[in-house]
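ARCHIVE CARD
Drawer: 12
Card no.: 0347
Subject: one protein chain, sequence and derived structure
Cross-reference: see card 0346
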Amino acid sequence: MNNLSVDHLIGIKGLSKEDIELIFTTADSFKQVINRPIKKVPSLRDVTIANLFFENSTRTRLSFELAEKRLSADVVNFSAASSSVKKGETLIDTVNNILAMKVDLVVMRHPNPGAAKFLSERIGAKVVNAGDGTHEHPTQALLDAYSIREKLGEDFKGKKVVIVGDIKHSRVALSNIFCLQKLGAEVMVCGPTTLIPKHIKELGVKVEHDLRKALEWCDVANMLRIQLERQDIQFFPSLREYSMLFGLDKKLLDSLDKKIIVMHPGPINRGVEISSDVADSDQSIILDQVENGVAIRMAVIYLLASKINR
């Protein structure tokens, strides 16, 4: 298969296993590109891409922008903080104004779940969801799975991944669950009862509230950030208490009877969900995730751009 089965990347839920594998194979080629002296290919020289970020983001926005420039696309960056959205302009008006400038592909992050799908149904350009509220963050899940594949091999069957932390507010957790399950991995979530959604077992994941037990079970631990900016009430007594019960430090990591892989989608709250010596240890693949993010986003943009009608 050389083409994605979808016209937009709204979520992992809409992708097939073959789609995910095609993205990974394409990313393999682009990873070679970004590791050579001239890190650019002319693949999308005549394509214009708009990055629309209605929510603050540093890493994801930079990663997308770098991916687009590595593909030689023309890039327009839009930040809601300094835009007419503040003056009351609607999402559709904003986007239509940008499309009138002949944009082919839109990468959008938005605080409202479903915003990317809403947009994809109303505009002619291709849409990549860079995170919509607490719903999905598909490229993060793809780069996480790609990073695991790099370390543990292409066959995900029997691989055990635990996602630890703020599952309730995390779009990364949901996208990761969908992606890992499609590839054949077993998934567990771990965190305080207040931060685990009530019906999550219906997604076919295991639930554990004891971090040590979860770490003894897994091959890979994906440590999520506590998303205080999405929490309108307090879900645990204090960060210190959260860290004592669900934070991963070197002492706990070294006490396990096997070596596990440690991941984090960033940005890291060092000393809360993960200690500095774990983040910087040889079991951590956090910087690999950052590098793989560019290759995965290049692959997604390249594959969607090939579907643009000219």
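Annotation on reverse: The radius of gyration is 19 Å. The mean pLDDT is 91.
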